Queue: 3 jobs
Job 1
Amino acid sequence: ANYGPNPICKGCLSCSKDNGCIRCQHKLFFFLRREGMRQYGECLHSCPSGYYGLRTPDMNRCSRCRIENCDSCFSRDFCTKCKTGFYSHRGRCFRGCPAGFAALEELMECVEGCEVGQWSEWGTCSRNNKTCGFKWGLETRTRQIVKKPAKDTIPCPTIAESRRCKMAMRHCPGGRRPAKTKDKKKKKKNLMERAQKQHSIFLATDKTSQ
């Protein structure tokens, strides 16, 4: 029977004009729809968003998902699809993935990420493979990849980093001075020789003019 413009009794075994379906056919799910102060029963092939199908010997029902930010669920405590902007992880919904897990954007799921170990101590301060002869150098520390990610598309965090450091010994004991120092001395010597040459030319010109 139909009551009004909508077939509210479709799929029902028993139906009321005011309350809609009271009992459903064997394979359908009973869903109690609320509209303002009014509520009425419907018989559906699948439950709407935010509900899951619960089969019982008496009658199949649509039961509400009890998981926060869940759009559709498999059972009361296991979400299969989260609302927009949330990531699915072990049947729950998260705004951001828990520690040790990475976000897979195309599926909006949290998968096992890249696990790295602790940082090592900072290495020796050096420059050009030398630990002396310069004022500043670089020191480096590293860490190992303990567990590779489940997906190759998920990057691992950096496993090496460097920072500027001041060398303990600026001059190498018993060694040659850096090439830069030699270049400075050579340049200074050339300038002095050029100045002396120009001075000699000036003196010779001055004597000729006298």
Job 2
Amino acid sequence: QCPGIEPLCLDLADWDATEAAVGAAGPFELLVNNAAVAELQPFLEVTRAALQRSLDVNLQAVLHVSQIVARQMIAQGVSGAIVNVSSQASQRALRDHAVYCSTKSALDMLSKVMAMELGPHKIRVNTVNPTVVMTNMGRINWSDPQKSAAMISRIPLGKFAEVDDVVNSILFLLSDKSAMTTGSSLMVDGGFLVS
């Protein structure tokens, strides 16, 4: 649908492969970090493998890809925007989400530090923090009606987010309409965090 866009398929946990592939791409003006995994386990059962995979994808990949892209933006003198897709889970504890909540909280703070340090280079950094989104991952983790009913009952708008709800928020944060917004988290949670 978008001519000129070339997808790069790679394992973001592979630091060297990511450096080579993303470093050879560009030039960049905008970046959306959306890759994530949700390894759901009770706190007492969290495995080292689940923790490592979550850290690799939910935090390390964002840091690394953002470094590569931001360095290119700075070298080219580009005013850019970066949006990191976080979660409402960064702000509220959810059962069986110890690792996911923790990595998303870390992502929010990483984004604030990025905003502070990249701001002088005219690069804005923000997060969108959605509730459950009806992606494949969302359907897998929230397909149990008992589990989903309990979550939906805490959302004042009474539903989970659709992909377009998140996409439209990202487009706003990438656009000049948010030219004075950086270091912020835009909640796309149907009011979950105020309930």
Job 3
Amino acid sequence: QGRMWAYAVGFTVLPHVGGFLGWFINRKEITGWYEKLKKPSWCPSRKMFPVAWTVLYTGMGYASYLIWNDLGGCSSKALIPLGLYGAQLALNWAWPPFFFGARNLKMALIDILLLDCLAIGTLCSWYRINKIATLLLVPYLGWLAMATCLTIRIWKDNPEQKPGKSE
């Protein structure tokens, strides 16, 4: 019981690791290339994204701890619920390198559509296990819905440049 707080902290911090790395690696593209893209009027301010992701990653990380704890750790019962969570987290972390790093809007769109499916699957698999964990994912799904719509609009409104063309 004494080490449970360390597990809670570890699970809560884990999503932030990939989020921070994605920001750190792509930070120059965020302030340069991204600013030049055509975006819809409802696009959140660039300053809103780190605040939102801090809250969302904290909630989903703690929720994953609740699921892990309720299922007795890394048991066979945890394979699907935590496997779905891990897969959606990997796609979440893959989106910034596709979007900002490679500037590949089509791959970013495919990634976020698959991410949406896995996040919904995660939510559904968690529902019977822990209602609080499930509720902690709801804001994340809401933000993903907005991010998906934003990705679609940016992809449609900013035709990708052909290789060799200057920006």
